[in-house]
Amino acid sequence: MTEDNAIDLTRLGEGLDAYGGDFRRWPQGLRAAAEALVARDQAARRLRETALALDALLDQAPSPLPSRALKARIMRPVAPPLWRQLLAALWPLGPAWQPAAALVLLAAIGIAIGPYVGGDEPATSEIEVLAFGGLQDYAGILRDDGGDLP
Amino acid sequence: MDEGAAADGELMGRVAAGDDAAARALVERHLPRALGLARRMLGNASHAEDIAQEAFLRLWQQARSWRPEARVSTWLYRVVHNLCFDELKRPARHASELSPDLPDRGESAADRRQRAEVSALVEAELNALPERQRAALALVHYEQMAAAEAAEILGVSIEALESLLARGRRTLRARLARLRPDLLGDVE
Fold first, then answer.
1. CB pairs below 8 Å between A and B: how many?
2. What CATH number is associated with residue B81?
3. For the segment B64-113, what is each residue's pLDDT rounded down to a tens digit?
């Protein structure tokens, strides 16, 4: 069938035989001409009704819908590795590598600059007080008592 | 190339880069038609699922070498069609099912039984058609594919596609009207 602008009853019949009565299934170039003929011709309308009746009957046997199990089977070869799935479960808001990488970066920065931060401040920890403060106090006590420490 | 085909090409590029979300998008877009075509051609739900799975596996294998100008839909459905033909050459494996699952429409039990009966009858007559007529009807009627793409998938001209469709529909009309004249009303 060629795609002319106007079609006659014979050509409409050929199209209905092939594509059925629903013009959405027809080639785009033929639709308007077929609809125009059906709109103005009683015999064309009868031909279309016959085709629509068969369409309705065919639609009684609908296509199957894919199951979740089938989709899972199909996705298995392209599914991410287990560690990425675990990260995604822990971080469902987006790609899990981003927060993980941010944490690793912050930890690295902390380790790198840690030794240079707060090194000149006086020792005030409890251990230092116990270790040195206590000894100095003891030296003072010995001096007061006339002991032989310098 | 239309927008859908271009988007499919982009998704294939992302699949090649390991993006499973892109693969999932392709599955959502093309699996229903691929499965529908296989189901119509084989008449068996379980084997149709195997064919659809195999076709997608082959698609994933093509991801790295995919040419952007290629059309995923045409390629995939042609693979399904060819796999079904190979499957049909093994007669022992493809026993037809005459009671497909029907969607629940909230009707009475009697109406549902009647619908199941008609559905089984139509399925049986579809399965009795020659393979190429069945494939043409599956693509154009059930999967509502454009004639040009359906012809490309089947490897025939549009005129040959129309001939397959017309012969298939005429046979179905004659058989269904003979078996159940009430189904086609007074239009026969």
1. 121
2. 1.10.1740.10
3. 999 988 999 999 999 999 999 999 988 665 555 545 555 666 777 777 78
Whether B18 sits inside 8 A of A54 (CB atoms) is no
How far apart CA B29 and CA B63 sit, in angstroms, is: 16
Domain ranges of chain A: 9-58, 80-116
Distances (CA, A) of B60 to A65, B15, B45, B79: 22, 7, 23, 13
From A130-134, B11-15, B27-31, the region with the lowest mean pLDDT = A130-134
Could A80 and B20 be called an inter-chain contact, meaning their C-beta atoms sit closer than 8 Å?
Answer: yes
Of the residues B92, B124, B154, which one is the last residue of a structural domain? Answer: B92
* Residue from B2, B15, B19, B35 to probe the interface with A (highest A Cβ count within 10 Å): B35
Distance CA B5, CA B11 (A): 10
For B129-176, the pLDDT digits (tens) are 999 999 999 999 999 999 999 999 999 999 999 999 999 999 999 999
